[in-house]
TrEMBL record, chain A:
PANTHER family: CALCIUM LOAD-ACTIVATED CALCIUM CHANNEL, PNAS-RELATED. This is Calcium load-activated calcium channel. One of its GO terms (molecular function) is calcium channel activity. Coiled coil: none annotated.
From TrEMBL, chain B:
It is found in: Endoplasmic reticulum membrane. It is a multi-pass membrane protein. GO terms for biological process: mitochondrial respirasome assembly. Residues 9-22 have a biased composition (Low complexity). Keywords: Endoplasmic reticulum, Membrane, Transmembrane, Transmembrane helix. This is Rab5-interacting family protein. One of its GO terms (cellular component) is endoplasmic reticulum membrane. The keyword Transmembrane helix applies. InterPro entries: EMC6-like (IPR029008), RCAF1 (IPR010742).
Amino acid sequence: MATAIPLFASFKYTDSLTVVGISFCTALVCEAISWILIYRTSSYKSLKSSIDKASRKLETMKTDNPSSKLTNKKSKTKKIDRVVSSLKESSRDLSLFKFKSGAVVALVLFVVFGLLNSLFEGKVVAKLPFHPVTIVRKMSHRGLKGDDSTDCSMAFLYLLCSISIRTNLQKFLGFSPPRGAAGAGGLFPMPDPKTN
Amino acid sequence: MRESKSAKLNQLQQQQQDNHQNVHLSPSKLAKLFDPDASWDKDQLGDVLHWIRQVVGLICGLLWGSIPLVGGIWIILFLAISSGIVYGYYAMILKVDEEDFGGHAALLQEGLFASLTLFLLAWILVYSLAHF
């Protein structure tokens, strides 16, 4: 332990480890809160189950060979529409349910970000191995002095930590939203926003 | 009476034999990852592809940061390598029909953004800590 402190003191950007450590702990706390308020409740479990069932049913109906008779096609389309609207309704209910409980998690994240901001405002916490584009630079160089665009602020590092750690933690714990839910997946699957 | 008893015994033995064969024939989870004949659920395949992307992102980030590799071009290269590995896995090793899983786009985007952020995080951290 005594040798570890001088070892870390020799690194110029040890603040980055502090940011990552706090992000990781925050992610654990947020998922614990989400589990208590959302995931262990019977309402969530039944909604998730109904979404999974509806998604599977929809996939089966869509991949079945279309019948040649017009009346059968119409009835099949009606059935698909019914399943789709049921799926949308369940997804909406799930989102609403999570939104109410997610306010607590949002508060925790807000407080932690405020704390980190006060600790590392104006400090360069890491060095970027690339020159970011203008849009990214607004976040990565936030609150920093000078023109070196490779200086990294706490906000950008915290954003990277939040997305990567929370998404994978949710996936690992099985708390990711079901793929059939509206807005699930997509090109940029963020950590479940309703628990933010 | 004796015939019915022996018939029942034969039936029981046959069932035990079938169960025994089933245990030997069902692949382990690890074997399933490389078995082109295994059947895949959409969620199962999506999860596997997600975690493959995360591992590739972490390894690339650690490697890029250690060498170090500098420049935005390495982000593009990471995306290409990562997507290539995922495509090679599901198309050539598993040989799945991508149409059954929502097409190439659906499979290739599994875990993409999370792996990109994980890659950037690892790359930035190792680069900052190891070279300054």
